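Sanity check

After download, print the first record. It should look like this:
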Amino acid sequence: MKTTLCRALVTMICAFGILPNLLAQIPDWYTTHKNIRYPSDMYIMGVGAGSGTNATEAAKKAAQTDVVSQIRVQIQAEVKNVSESFQFNKDEQLFSDFRSNVRTAVSDEITGMEVAETVTDNSTGTAYALIVLERDKYCETIKTELDAGWKQANDLRTGAFEFAKKGKLNDAMQNLLETRKTVSPLLPKQALYNAVSSIPYKLLSGFGPTTISADIRTMLSVVRMEKKSGDKQKGKIGESFPEPFVVRVTINQDGNSVPVVGSSVVFETSDKVKIADATTDDQGMASLSTTIRAMTGNGIQARLFFAGLDREFDQNLLSSAVNFTWKAEGSNVSFSLKVVAKSTKVSSDLKRLFTSAITQIGYKVVSSSKYVIEVSVESGQMSKVEGMTGTLYSVSANVTAALMDKSDDNTLGSVKFSGKGMARSEEEVTEKAVGNVKINVTDLSDLLQKAVGK
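Expected structure tokens:
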């Protein structure tokens, strides 16, 4: 009777599928994601399952992926915390770079993961793996890198203010720009640290990217540039200004005006064409000696320039800029024009174009002169474009203007301009291209000046 009862019990267990579960070797830590030997405040625990010929290896890889996935989830919260604590989430480019660097940091191989246990279920051939990452041990290296990085950034920033006190503004700016570069990779590293560590990283230096930007703006706000000489001059086109344009640059330090030494001052026309730059001396002085290039644009601006400084600080730089004004008289030097072209229309268009430009600069165009501007046209390779309305022709026109001194048949120089055109015929397309030629007034002025200075 006992035998019969046992058989009935086994039959019932098998019928309800209980026996396979009793015989299966699925570890508790796989289903619960917990293990008393690896508390969550000390370890990140990953579990995985695998099957096939390399079931155990597949399980390990799945468990490693589980660890990385947990870090990914946690680091998303840290992205928000870090961006808010450093107050740069309103800067779209900075915030975008930060998030991109965070993704890269998590994508890198997470080192230090250890295989804590593997189990194989012989009844199904499934392998299970438990992988653990010890939080403090993993964060040791990151903390060392963070400490060193923030110290370097702090030293650079402190050095910047020391340079500013001595008037070495260029060195100060380069230090602050280097500080920004140093801080940038620290932020994603800090987010990764906080995502893994049980204790958030304590920042050794209380600043971030926006603090450095504020430092730059504050430093530029106490810079003063003043005109010392050269304002309101008069002269003729093509000749040198009677006196140089001179500025003095100082920076306010504790109520004292300290000369800015070794910084670059850019001199440019009122239409933003650079003339030249100069470096401030030990008195903060920078000067420009130049010629009057054209009747138009009767102004010269002097402003500070720092290599590597982003355009976001342009307005801060312009706040210290100064503007010189001058009045110009037309030159006594005149030029005649000689245009070489295949068609009468092209010849006429070029003559009108150059006459207008030369007159605008401040010179006269006459029928005969010892100085001749010889204008020639060279067409590029013509191409066809098949469109809805038929065939269109496209070509570029290269126009060369050469300055000739007929008294000795000497070429003083030349400049080139270009234009592109599209038309329905090969004859018309060159005319279109020439019609689209744009003359660079600065380049043409420099060419004409060669006759004045001869």
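If your output differs, re-run the checksum step. Summary of this record's structure: The domain at 224-329 is CATH 2.60.40.10 (Immunoglobulin-like).
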